[in-house]
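User: Sequence in, structure out. Go.
Assistant: Echoing your sequence, followed by the structure tokens.
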Amino acid sequence: MDALLFWTALWLAGVGLFVYLMITLVRRLVVRFSQGVEANVRAAESIVNDECVPEAWAAPYRQQIETLRRTVGSEAEIERAGRRGHKDCLRQLDRLVQYFEKSNLVDSAESRHVLLTGLQRQRERWVAGGWQYVIEREYDH
């Protein structure tokens, strides 16, 4: 009888631990998902409304270029870092466009069209402006 009680208690403890771990995992996934959604919405807002590159996208490259300038990096190194940042920002913008093409967060087809048109318009500006326009441009916001 004592053995049966012990194994039952152990089984219940195992099930309880499993349920606790699953709840914790689901909570973390929900938080991570919501942070991703929020980051995408903020990035789109920054690009379309403020007409600027999201700071989180450009900051690492701005920092790298500033460090190269402080440490007397060659113009070729600065150019490479800028081009790399430009390419990465365009890649992130393309991912953002794909996200909003498929996302259910947009309330209507018209809103989706306006958003995607604004993102595409900014992409064209970023391509035409080159890395200096995207990475080094000072924004008034």
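User: And one key feature?
Assistant: The mean pLDDT is 91.
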